[in-house]
Amino acid sequence: MRKIKKRIGALCLALGIAASTLFTPVTALAATGGYSESQLDGKLDTIYQGSIGDCGAVSAIQALDNSKYGRKIFRKMITDNYNGTYTLNFGGGRVTVTEDDVYNAYIEGDLDARVIEAGLQKAMNVYNGCFACDVFTRMTGFRQRTYRSSNKTEIMNTMAAKCQNGEGITAACDFNIADPDKGIIGDGGHSYSIKSVNKNTVVVINPWDTSGLISMPRSQFERAIRYMTYVDDAAKNVVVYWE
């Protein structure tokens, strides 16, 4: 039923865009999100996880938009073959998907993100659940390095420094301790991308709707997390931290 509704909605959207494009500048379409949902543009707009447990993949995709390095590889990740297929230029190996694969992706919103998720599903079956660190590894081709609690402060300070100097971070996490008032799910039940870190505050994004930001004291974040990961492009590592 969900797929039928999605197809009907997509058809209505396509017809609406076709009619309105005659009278609407491209810049206006981009501003309303209509353009990014129907055209590949090498940029990431709002995405919505949907009804399946692929939060690790969706949070990892969103995380690309939070750093210079992530945006750079995002722009080069998709090749439109102009024959009804797209090639995903993942660092861990290329994958080709069809328009039907993209159409059936559970993620909603930005078209670039839907193409990437279709490629990730084909490459690593993300609809059965995955960690963002494994998605980062697939997208970058970097090896993973795992750390434990004694490295927490060092990792947090490294991410804060990257945010302060303008590099940004491609990072994600999940939580042991819930905070319902902030929309934080505990017991490792949901993955979030990490937008920014400084000495006092951490901002995360829920993949259910990436247009919103969740801010919390850094002390709360450090107490509450179960796991976090970020892409260290200089060392060509995916850093993985577990409590």
From TrEMBL:
Domain of life of the organism encoding this protein: Bacteria
Protein's UniProt keywords contain NAD: no
Keywords carried by this UniProt record: Signal
Domain Calpain catalytic: 46-208
Record flagged with keyword Metal-binding: no
Record InterPro entries: Papain-like_cys_pep_sf, Peptidase_C2_calpain_cat, Periviscerokinin
Pfam families named among the record's database cross-references: Peptidase_C2, Periviscerokin
UniProt protein name: Calpain catalytic domain-containing protein
Protein's organism: Lacrimispora amygdalina
